[in-house]
Amino acid sequence: MNMPKSRITPKLGSIDELLKLSEKSNHEAEPLSLKGDIQSIPVNKIRFFKDHPFHLYEGERLADMVDSISANGILVPVIIRRIEPDETGHEYEMLSGHNRMNAALLIGLELLPSIIKEKLSNEEALLYVVETNVLQRSFSEMLPSEKAKVLSLRHSEMFSQGKRNDIIDELKKLEDPQYNKENETSAPMGQRPTSRDKVAEEYGLSKNSVSRLLRIDKLIPELKQRVDAADLPLRCAVHLSYLTEDEQNIIEQAMADNGVKVDMKKSELLQSHSGKLSADQANKILSGEATRKPRGKTPQPPFKLKHKVYAKYFSSQSKASEVEEIIDRALEMYFAHQQQYTSAQNKSEDTIHEPEF
């Protein structure tokens, strides 16, 4: 799609002046080149980052941002990347500024002051998304799935400490135009972490906690949501992370349809079936049927012949095998006689009640 030509504005003294000018131009529908890399882009041309791993502000925090933008405008430009136009007409994807855009949509702003990144890889784009959230929020306040995404990126092969430092510097300069890297007082981040020990040390976690959170990032989005909502215990979720994506979808469907919960015993059993778990098997495990012990028949207590009856028919010298044989034959004769007697009684009753014609 051919975009209209940008209109160059006069040189401005500060970003504040620049962004105030952009607010005055919000009625215009076309992108407006303001200064250098900063342009005013229609909100409806920007989509949220695909599979955005962080939750947007809600409640009071969102309300405060809406009030601030309503009163002062967007003081810090968002960072977006150019994409191939998608089926909904989006031409850009948000990297840094999801909450600002969400607040702008609620207010009804048409344009966002934006810095456009060209030809970013998906991995580089994700670095912007993650580092923006790490800078704006405390790691300890993040939800489990958000922590998992941060740690997964830091532990991945594509991680570049140098690239990360450049992105952090860029984000800090946007927040504070007076920011100077040489005057930065925070401790250096060090070299690229090559082990979980270094990642754990940076975020104040134990190695086991890092290992568990790295597994959480292997879950499908629906199960991550259950972990964040404390509907799925973290350790149980770790077991489920070893299942294939299709198997995880089976688990999610069963939990949604039947309202079943997953405990340690069930999650361990589910993990043991990784790669060969069927829907029927998953339902049996989650319902508890697979681990329920079948009820056995209650054994009948052994029959004991009273001594006075035994002495009436047998002597003390009688062998047990002989006694058992005699009793068996006697019972056989008794029940045969009873059957003959019952048959005779039935025939007699039929004769008596036979109708007369």
Structural class: alpha/beta
Strand content: 5-15%
Instruction: Tell how many strands the DSSP assignment holds.
Output: 6
Low-confidence stretches: 1-36, 183-194
> Could you state the order of secondary-structure elements as H and E?
HEEEHEEHEHHHHHHHHHHHH
How would the blueprint of this fold be written?
Elements: H1 15-24, E1 32-35, E2 38-42, E3 46-47, H2 59-72, E4 78-82, E5 92-96, H3 98-107, E6 111-117, H4 122-136, H5 144-155, H6 161-175, H7 196-203, H8 207-216, H9 221-228, H10 234-240, H11 245-258, H12 264-272, H13 279-287, H14 307-313, H15 320-352
Parallel strand pairs: 3-5, 4-6
Antiparallel strand pairs: 1-2, 2-6, 4-5
Helix pairs in contact: 2-3, 4-6, 5-8, 7-8, 8-10, 10-12, 11-13
Describe the structure.
Strands 1-2-6-4-5-3 form a six-stranded mixed sheet. Helix 2 packs across helix 3 (98-107), helix 5 (144-155) crosses helix 8 (207-216) and helix 10 (234-240) packs parallel to helix 12. With 357 residues, the protein is α/β, with parallel strands linked by helices. The protein folds into three domains: 6-120, Conserved hypothetical protein from pyrococcus furiosus pfu- 392566-001, ParB domain (Alpha-Beta Complex); 121-178 and 197-217, no CATH class; 221-290, no CATH class. The protein contains 15 helices and six strands. It has helices at 15-24, 59-72, 98-107, 122-136, 144-155, 161-175, 196-203, 207-216, 221-228, 234-240, 245-258, 264-272, 279-287, 307-313, 320-352, and strands at residues 32-35, 38-42, 46-47, 78-82, 92-96, 111-117. It is elongated, with a radius of gyration of 38 Å. Mean pLDDT is 78; it is low at 1-36 and 183-194.
